[in-house]
Amino acid sequence: MNPQPPAGSSAWEGHKPGDGAIYTRICPLAMAGANTAGLMGPPVTFWSAVPPATAVDPVQLAQQALDKMTLLGPDIASPAATGKYVIGMPMWMWVHESPTTYGPNTASATAGGVTVTAVAKVSRIDWTMGDSSTVTCNGPGTVYTTSYGKQESPTCGHTYSNTSAAQKGGKYTLTATSTWTVDWHVNGGGETGQLTAIRQSQLQLAIGELQVVR
Predict the structure, then answer these.
(1) Are 45 and 90 part of one and the same domain?
(2) Is the C-alpha dihedral spanning 105, 68, 177, 94 positive or negative?
(3) Residues 68 and 121 in one domain
(4) Which helix H or strand E contains 68, and what residues bound it?
(5) How confident is the model over 91-147, as pLDDT tens digits?
(6) Which of 119, 166, 183, 197 has the fewest CB within 10 Å, making it most exposed?
(7) To which H or E segment does residue 17 belong?
(8) Dihedral of alpha carbons 87, 88, 89, 94, sign
(9) Which helix or strand (DSSP H or E) is residue 198 part of?
């Protein structure tokens, strides 16, 4: 407590100031089936000869471990901002994989003798194409090679039906949003859990139209 109770207070339980200290403990309410966020039980005041151990919240340690990671938005390989794309032609979308842009990415945090290790990996990428379409891909996508010809991507793709000529700057704004799933565990066994992180990347994409010359 700050300030400490005066000498003679019943809080000292017969002890004197300097013989340890008076502490106040406040605990979250535990009500089964209820959302107790922000609800605290009544404070409990007690004397102790030594400072009581501070409880370590593994979820906070997991968040600290996550904060140590340099998680970035998707590293878009295709489509490329400098590429040439036309309406009616299947577009293949895929991303480069690295620890910071796709995972896995690992970090740990320690406090009070407790260590939590977290492992983050992208679980899905939502592509907002700029033409009111959204494509959800559950993987990094398939790398296109000329042997595929004009077929659609088997994992992640889109076909534009309108050019970007009417858009600002003559280009669509494409946004790739990655959802990172972060699994964490207390080292040595015990509690486990999961966090989620969101990261984005954008690029400007021009979609043209093939003209038939006769």
Answers:
(1) no
(2) negative
(3) yes
(4) helix 58-68
(5) 999 999 999 999 999 999 998 889 999 999 999 999 999 999 999 999 999 999 999
(6) 166
(7) none
(8) positive
(9) strand 192-205
